[in-house]
Amino acid sequence: MDRDRILEWTKAERLGVADFLEGLDGHEWRTDSLCAGWTVHDVAAHLTLSTRTTVKDVLKGAVKARGNWERMEFDAAKARAGAFGPAELVAQIRETAGSARRAPMSSPLDPLTDFLVHGQDVARPLGRVRPMPVEQTVAALRHVVSSPFYGAGKRLRGVRLVATDADWSTGGGPDRAEGPAGDLLLLATGRPAGLAGVTGPGAERLAAVLS
After folding, report:
1. Both 101 and 13 in a single domain?
2. Which helix or strand (DSSP H or E) is residue 179 part of?
3. Using 50, 70 and 90 to split pLDDT, how confident is the model at 151?
4. 95, 184: one domain
5. Count of domains in the chain?
6. Which structural domain range is residue 146 located in?
7. What does the pLDDT look like over 175-196, one tens digit per residue?
8. pLDDT average, residue stretch 76-98
9. Which residues are CB-neighbours of 57 under 8 A, at least 6 positions away?
10. pLDDT at 157
């Protein structure tokens, strides 16, 4: 896929998330996100890191977290959330919205995927609707299901995902799970909240896997 196009999508999504975060009050910033143990503030802090993380940062973080990638990301987000307030983090997201720089070992589609998914991580617990552009979401879905990094292959085993708002499907399993691409993306990345818009026997199978 054209990298310039992906970067345009990513820039728009970054700016959209920045606008969304700017409209939240203090209580909402302290609300738990869909990411276990992460507040909205923590997620926002994490989103500033993709254009700022160096190889040295990854190596130091990995050693400190004893090789646990999720722990490393958690520690980095918490540390940055403790160092910067909401307005500062929003400004940082805007500052590098159009940057092609990305975290070591990541692909061009990872930052887009990060903002699409984390945008829902903060919006849904607040009862807010944050639309997900279908073409971009499908591109992220294709990336997630084909990348070993997200663990979607194991999570979706035996399930066929079928988008109801796009001409897209994946998986050869006997159990279909049908719903908007945005909800399917949440499920593919391990978020039970995606079950809200998905139907079919595959949804029941995924509910058991994600519980």
Report:
1. yes
2. strand 175-179
3. very high
4. no
5. 2
6. 134-210
7. 999 999 999 999 999 999 999 9
8. 97
9. 76
10. 94
- Whole-model pTM over 0.90: yes
Residue 121 lies in a domain: no
- pLDDT category of residue 173 using cuts at 50, 70 and 90: confident
Residue 30, in any domain of the structure: yes
CB 41 within 8 A of CB 29: yes
Q: What is the DSSP letter of 160?
A: E
Residue-wise DSSP of the chain: --HHHHHHHHHHHHHHHHHHHHT--HHHHTSB-SSTT-BHHHHHHHHTSTTT--HHHHHHHHHHTTT-HHHHHHHHHHHHHHH--HHHHHHHHHHTTT-----TT--THHHHHHHHHHHHHHHGGGT------HHHHHHHHHHHHH-GGGTHHHHTTTEEEEESSSS-EE---SEEEEE-HHHHHHHHTT-GGGGGG-BSHHHHHHHHHH-
Provide the residue type at 169 as one letter.
S
8 and 91 share one domain: yes
Tokens 């959330």 belong to: 81
C-alpha span between 107 and 95 (Å, rounded): 21
CA separation, residue 194 to residues 19, 68, 92, 112, 182 (Å): 23, 26, 29, 18, 8
- pLDDT digits 0-9 by tens, 53-80: 887 877 787 777 777 778 889 999 999 9
